[in-house]
Fold this protein.
Amino acid sequence: MSEVDVRATARELVIVHVGFGTAAVPYETGWDLQKRTHERRVNDEIPDTVLLMEHEPVYTAGKRTEALDRPFGDPGAPVVDVDRGGKITWHGPGQLTGYPIVKLPDPVDVVAYVRLLERMMMDVCAEFGLATTTVEGRSGLWVPGTPDRKIGSIGIRVSRGVAMHGFMLNCDNDLGWFDRIVPCGIRDVGSTSLTAELGRPVTAAEVTPVAERHLAAVLGATEYVHRTTAQIDAA
């Protein structure tokens, strides 16, 4: 499947701001919302929908997480095992997390979809003046250097033709949280953020409208509208 094929499935895109800043979302709350939204998208009750938020601090461990990747002792935040692909990572304040609940064309091409999300994050970083790249054999988005530094991650699950989970982009978060795990199972690199790379504060609130625009573009949406969580649940 080509990138054009993936884009051709998206016409209308709904964007929901679930919670930011002092209203950062507990992971379980966001996960429950994902599952409800996913079910409604599978049943064609709602169009493709993207949930955007900051989380309260949490480590999420994907299905490929190994024991040595996990934090030892008290990591200072819950560790939640989830049903997405990939390994362990951290979510929290200062990081933009997005969950596109989108229907993919049949036959589903997960790799093509992941490439779209990588392109979206790359375009966002470029708009802020930061050059990024993808690395063969390593998922997510990287700032090239010695060593490369990871700035964005992707972990998804596709069930009944509809994707859930999604991406995270480090904006102005505390990078020390990543020191307590082996992020994404990769041991020889570090983590970074837009703030760290650009030398000025770049908040999730500042990045959000840019990410919305680029996400709509890579998904081929002809328009995107904002809705509340209540409106999605009631649609």
Observations:
- The CA atoms of residues 59 and 90 lie 4 Å apart.
- The longest helix spans residues 110-127.
- The domain at 3-234 is CATH 3.30.930.10 (BirA Bifunctional Protein; domain 2).
